[in-house]
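hey so i finaly got around to running the thing on PH domain-containing protein from Cryobacterium tepidiphilum. pasting the sequence first so u can double check i didnt mess up the copy paste, my clipboard has been acting weird all day
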Amino acid sequence: MDRTAAGLIVIVALVAVLALLWFAWRRRTFRDAGIEPGYPLPEAEAAPLASADVFYVATTRRDQPLERLNIRGLGFRARGHVAVRDDGLVLSLAGEEPRFIPAAAIETVARATWTIDRVVESDGLLLVGWQAPTADAAGIGVDSYLRIVDSGDRDRVIEALTRIAPVTPAGTTESEA
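ok and heres what it spat out for the 3d tokens, dont ask me to read them lol
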């Protein structure tokens, strides 16, 4: 086989792999289309109890840290800012509308070490488990992972979250097993 034929085979294989990746991502997009990216932001501005700059890592199905959800505005990693208020959590990601999670929807606050495509030092991620609204009003349990830029802010954010929401205590989770 000459070099031209080998080159064409490699190009066709690469195009096929890229096409498969594209189709898989589109399928995931359609699968997750009924999941809302948060709740309406309240009209009244509440003072933040704690806030921090973050790297948003991913949102996954509850207790399935390797199953990324492609929820509108939460499908990709991004820099952002999180503010914990009396009424809930506001997640503002670069290039996206702010996402609001009311305190009543927050079900878990924990530390994690890994999730889809990200492994960090022990307890380097903040896991916020919440009930995401869906088109059929049933809701779905999801886990959102944040990496707080300044480690000094991490404890303040976790403390504020556990103060406003009826959640499990901060600590390790099964995602670290």
